[in-house]
Design goal:
Elements lengths: L6 H9 L11 H9 L5 E3 L2 E4 L2 E5 L1 E5 L5 E7 L20 E2 L2 E3 L7 H18 L5 E7 L10 H10 L6 E4 L11 E3 L1 E2 L1 E10 L3 E2 L9 H13 L14 E8 L7 E2 L2 E10 L5 H15 L14 E11 L2 E2 L3 H15 L4 E3 L7 H4 L5 E3 L13 E3 H19 L1
Parallel strand pairs: 5-8, 5-9, 9-20, 10-19
Antiparallel strand pairs: 1-4, 2-3, 4-8, 6-7, 7-21, 11-18, 12-16, 12-17, 13-15, 14-16
Helix pairs in contact: 1-2, 1-3, 3-9, 5-6, 7-9
The structure holds zinc ion.
């Protein structure tokens, strides 16, 4: 039987499945077809939750005697946008000038296609790694991420699955394959502040209490001073005010209420608890300030509501895992990868609760864009990096 050793063939099969979140689109079936001949036991649990669409996921394990490596990723893709703007149809896997086009080519069906090709080559040449390899693949990474990785990890762990390390195949390289490994991620917190004032005539401000002045005072206290100067492994924490709303259509009325929403991306100086406490402290202190509210004696009346679940900051410190990956990248690409914690959050933030996790995949330049595409040479190179990594980490 022919094993799935060609990453381009694997990727073409996956791109042809229109798996826009939450649709399975045939992508998990295509994976199952590749994995079964390699000796993987495949499960495809579907998870549900009120108010969100059901999502099908895949967990596959090839058992062996030795440590257990997890490869994690997602087969769902973002919508194609203006389909007419694509040079080649987004689910055609067309090849032109040495590049394969298609939604998900780099984010991240390409990473999965390369990892499977790497395992297949190992099986063909050496009978497979001396240990267990599993693939934890969700169909809900680009969507609400509720019926995906979190539940799949819980589901697998409840069946006794334990992992020694995990590799996430998201596109981590800004410009060239080998640029960057992600070894951690910043945390993320969001909240809305509401300031209550008193409505009135702009010509008689002493009879009113303008909540915009109060909100400016509070927002000012969140922006100044900066939260920290960054750490050895992380850039400085940063707060951005993302909305500032009064909803007032009149120019001669002082409104009764104003709200602002902010998001903060924070480093390992903080935990979400210490950072929340710092923010409460800053707002409480600022509520008595007179800078924007001269002459007022009453403190600013405000509420703070935390939004969503916070994303925890994390940093992986596992030399065996990081060295095996960085060494494999150096061997195959000749590049010394930067060990980075930049960028948004990823599913690695959930996996880190189970085992050390690092991220390395394709070049991310065209992800989520019209004409998402990957050079075939890059697919081959990533497959070789993963092959070398399998040899080194298990060896
Ligand atoms: Zn992705």
């Amino acid at each position: 039987m022919k094993l799935p050793t060609d990453p381009a063939e694997n990727l073409a099969a996956l791109i042809r499945c229109p798996s826009v979140t939450p649709a399975e689109g045939g992508a998990l079936s295509a994976l199952e077809t590749m994995l079964k001949p390699l000796g993987f036991a495949v499960d495809r649990p579907t998870f549900s939750e009120d108010g969100t669409p059901d999502v099908e996921n895949l967990y596959a394990r090839r058992s062996g005697n030795g440590p257990h490596l997890m490869f994690a990723g997602h087969t769902d893709v973002v919508p194609v946008g203006d389909e007419a703007a694509w040079t080649h149809p987004p689910f055609s896997a067309a090849i032109a000038h040495g590049e394969m086009y298609g939604r998900g080519a780099v984010d991240m069906k390409g990473g999965i296609a390369c990892f499977i090709a790497a395992v297949a080559r190992h099986v063909e040449a050496h009978g497979g790694p001396k240990g267990s390899v599993s693939l934890l693949i969700t169909g809900d990474e680009e969507g609400p991420s509720i019926n995906g990785t979190v539940k799949l990890l819980e589901w697998a762990a409840s069946r006794g699955e334990k992992w020694d390390a995990a590799l996430v195949g998201e596109p981590t390289n800004p410009d060239a394959l080998g640029d960057m490994i992600k070894i951690g991620r910043r945390g993320s917190l969001s909240a809305t502040i509401t300031v209550h004032g008193r409505q009135g005539h702009v010509a008689y401000p002493h009879l009113a209490d303008n909540p915009v002045r109060g909100l400016m005072t509070l927002v000012d206290a969140l922006i100044n001073p900066v939260f920290d100067k960054g750490t050895k492994d992380f850039q400085p924490s940063n707060l951005e005010v993302t909305t500032f709303d009064v909803g007032n259509t009149a120019t001669n009325v002082i409104a009764a209420k104003a709200t602002a929403t902010f998001n903060i991306r924070y480093n390992d100086t903080w935990t979400d608890e210490t950072l929340q406490a710092e923010i409460h402290n800053r707002l409480d202190k600022a509520s008595g300030r007179k800078k924007y509210r001269p002459g007022r004696k009453d403190p600013i009346e405000f509420e703070l509501a935390w939004r969503d679940r916070p994303s925890h900051v994390f940093l992986t410190r596992n030399d065996k895992l990081i060295d095996a990956l960085a060494g494999s990248i150096k061997t195959v690409t000749g590049r010394e990868p930067k060990l980075s914690t930049t960028g948004g959050t990823s599913d690695a933030r959930f996996i880190k609760n189970y085992c050390p996790v690092v991220e390395f995949g394709l070049v991310g330049k065209t992800m989520h864009m019209v004409d998402e595409r990957v050079p075939l040479a890059e697919l081959e190179m990533l497959t070789q990096v993963y092959q070398q990594f399998l040899a080194d980490w298990f060896g």
